[in-house]
Each structure stands twice: as structure tokens, then as C-alpha cells.
Structure prediction request, 282 residues.
Amino acid sequence: MTNQIDNIVRQAHKGSVAAIIQVLNDELAQVGVRTRAVFADGVLQLLCEAAKVELLEQSNLVDRIRQILEGISPRNIRRVNINSRLVREHQLLWLEEISRDPQNQLLWSQEIKLIKPNFWQRFALAQKERQERGPKLALPRMAAPRRFMQEPQQFQRGIIGGICISVVLLAAVAAIYKGLNSQVANSTPATTQAVVSPAGKVTPSSNVDSFAQAVRLAEQAAREGKTAQSHEDWLVVAAKWQQASDLMAAVPEQHPRYTTAANRTALYRQNSEKAQQAAQNK
Prediction:
């Protein structure tokens, strides 16, 4: 189970919205708050819902969410818009609704910016990921001079050579991380589900088929729901059903399977709620 939780955290660090939702729901379940999220226009739109207003106290909830997300440090996500409201069971297109009429839909809304990890934190995370992918090839050791004590000049050359090698290695590490940061900045997040048009309507990205993504997530959730046993297992299933529901809700009207998507939006959300109930029972 520890490996599964670690894997969810790693997926959240890579920017998986479904994994981020799962981590947040797991952390906030004890205070009666559940979350939903969509990555849109470079901002993680986060919806926090609870049965009572006092459970959504702004300063405490914002600080707690900031702490959780900065601990995850999701790639390509720096801006987070936190929206809060009382639970509304039958509202499916929540992002479209709150964009259209935020004053009547929300208790409050606040945008935060996550602090970017420093160089050493990024270095430690990258080192951990390399270790998880497989053992690193060991560099050949340099043989020590046989006549170390007898030849001071050779000793000095060895020191100078070691310093030069260290400088070269540090320069190589800096170049590698500069290249990695450049690739991340230029790449399109793999977890983008929807964007918001100027009119406030949710439309899928041009290179993303929300319907197909939702079907894949739903199939995964259905398979995992057959074997789920623990509290963490059911939270995984609930997060995937909820993400599949949000993706179906983002399918545009001109999509050939729009009617099917509308029906499955409600069905997937019901499945998510059942999985959350199962998690609470555990």
C-alpha cells in the first residue's frame, strides 16, 4: 500500500490532475472537504465543497491547500485558483457555472501562486526519480598514485586534476538541469483537460479528446473498484471517477458523442460519490 501511495504522489508531482485530486481529498477528508479540479489556461481551477460554511473557512483552508500542493510541487502548475461553495449534488458543469456567475455560485475565491522549489530541492527530486527508474552506472574510480609520498609534484598534479574534474562535473550538472527546465517550460502539460473560452464556456483543447480520456479513466476506475479494499484504494477509485466525470462535462456540443457524454457525466459522478462513501466506511 505504501508503494501505491508513493506512486500517487509521484504522479501528482508530474502534474496528473487526477492524482492531485486524490492527494487533496485524502488530506482534506478529515475536515469534511472534498475537491474537484480542472487545469485550464495555465491555472489549476480547484473547487472545494463542504456541507457547512464553517468547514470552508478561507484562511485556514487556503494555507492547508498551499502546504499540500507545495509539498507535491506539481510540474507546470504554479497558479491555483481556489473556489469554495456548499455541496451541490446535481450541478455537473461546475467550472462553466462559476465562471458565468461567481457571485451567486461561490462563497469565496482566491488565487495563489506556488513557490517554486529551489535548485537543491529540484536536484533531490530528480535524483530520487533516477533511483526509482533504475540503478545508475557507476563512474570508474581513478587509481591513486602509487608513489604518493615519494613524488610531491605528482601529488600536486593529482589535486589540480581532481579540482578540474569537479568543475567539469558541476558544469555538466548545471547544463543538464538547465536543459531539463527548458524542456519542461516549452512542453505542453499532459494533464490539460479543458480551456475556458472568452465567453466563459468550457471547451476541450485542440489536441485532447476529452471523451476518449474520460472513457480510459472510467475503465481504470471500474477495474480498480473490483479489487479495492482499503480506504486509500477507494480514494483512488473516487478520484478517477470524478476526473472522468469532469472530462465528460468538458466535451463540446459539436462532438459526435455529446449526448452520451452528458449522460455519463452524471453517471461517473454518482460512481465517484459511491467510492467516496466506501472510503469513509473503511
Summary: The longest helix spans residues 152-186. The first strand starts at residue 34 and ends at 40. Residues 135-150, 184-207 have pLDDT under 50 and may be disordered.
